[in-house]
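User: two proteins, same treatment. go.

Assistant:
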Amino acid sequence: MSSIFSRSPYIIEIDETGQVSSKVELYIWTSGSQPSDPQYTLSKKIPASDRTSTLYDVSPYIREYYSFDSFTGLTNVYNEATPTGHYVNVRIVRSFTNSTGEQGIDSTVYKAFNGYGLYEDGSNPDKGNVLLAEDTYTYKKLGGSDVIAQQQNHAGIITVRTGTSDVMRYTDLVTGATFTQALSDNSMINLDRCYTLHRERGNKVELLTGGSTVSWTAYFRPIEECKYTPVYIDYINAFGAWSRIFMYKTSKTSIKTTSKDFKLMNEPLNYDVLRGSKALFQVNGTETLKVNSGFVRESFFSQLKELMLSDRVLVNNRPASIKTSSLDMQTGLNDNTMSYGLDVEFNNDIINA
């Protein structure tokens, strides 16, 4: 089963001998069985008798079916079904018409995700079965009265599209102890990034395709922050799945208010100097947050890049937008120590007006 990353074009081509027109039928569903009728039927005539190829970009028709309305994260869970709505099922039926009538070509089922390919990836890229880049990630190390089950202390999730007999292996970065989890066959699965007994020291996580072949590897390391309260940011990454990063150092909250004013007229016979000559109405405001990563690895920039390109962001479990629109990539050669700051705006007025 192929994958569609629908923030980029996904091109379906029909080019059959003798065709004069073509048709694509799209069946789209999030749960249950396939609908009996297609949601969309697209058709085209060939451009010319010597140019018979017809192309369809199906991505725009798929994107309206995602739903990321809720996110609770995971802790100590290693084989949980990905919520429906975080991806969609798509069946694409291709056909064409020649001099003898309409002819069927094929019918293909896809999994579609709210992700994208980069320009250099070309068209219809294959991004693999793990919806997270191979990289090193950090999470908040527990301390004091922290409770692992609290949202702000979750390490984050890994979303996997499984095959048959796939296994996820967790290896403690210090002791080398391993934990393996068999994954449900041919499913969409969410897993905690860190095995509970490895959380204090961190772990390497590997997907073993078919139970034996390592096809994906990432590292998850704890960061202890004793002075500041880390800000946690959940966002839909380049693969179309929830991902999490922490900004460990100082954060500053600000508000910006807006209002309109109108001129008042004091009553001449009942003049009140406390009344004023102007009044405000439609007073409201927005809240912003400045966050800082602390010292990071060079590869952290790629995670920030995905965050800044995300169209769904939660900051401390509140819907937000990343207002920073420009960021210079730092390197160990040029900058010695690397840290990044971001400006965040929460996506709601302060007063529920």
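Protein 2:
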Amino acid sequence: MDKAAIKQKVCEAIAAHRADIEAISEAILAEPELGFKEVKTSRKVQEALERLGIEFTAGHGITGVKARMKGRNSKRTVAMLAELDAIVCRNHRNADPVTGAAHCCGHNIQIANMIAVACGLRDVMSELDGDVVLFAVPAEEYVEIDWRNAQRDEGRLKYLGGKQQLIAEGAFEDIDMAMQMHVASGDEFNLGASSNGFIGKLIEYHGRPAHAAFAPEEGINALNAAQIGLMAVNANRETFQDKDQIRVHPIITKGGDLVNVVPADVRIETYVRGNNVPAILDGSFK
């Protein structure tokens, strides 16, 4: 077949499987899971691949699923990535009532898109001179850092991000090029958007506990210190250079233990994002 005929066959196959493609998106949306915990989501992907008769391996980065469709020649391998995980957004209408996980970033649509690629290309691989890898990858969202650090301490992980973990495991060694899509608000279609990096930081403030009403003067208030630290970051924002696209967005994850005890253990979690390593490491200010 020529290229036009191949494209037509691919589009017809995707259209024929539209109901199945939409169904897996809705099923994943209904049961969101956080990174490295996407057990149900991983199983849904595996079941979809089984129905299509596509062989796969599982357990990559704990929950990742990797399938390969062979072409008539295996000159090159192109991977289609889709992300399994959700984020925490407890007010979302589809949030998990226990974990607060929700697919606010549309990763359920990524998985559906990957399955659409499988449906479309499955029956034309004999016309292609390369292989296609379908790779459902875990833990794109860099969340639950304390929990992931514990997994690393226990030897289950080497890195806290899913793709970094997969690289460490060698899961991309047989892939020449990888691509993926991501949904966004609006009707625009963008190709090759910017790709900023970040580092995650955990900050601990340690004070001295005391009764907040009876003897507050005997305590050292770690929450006050944390607030001063946050204001110091805010005071530096005007020095961030636009060319570096720096974003610093901390949250207080623990503000103390009891309201009637002077806070002695306060925790902050933050990202520092940017488009180059030096700017990220020094926050784009001196």
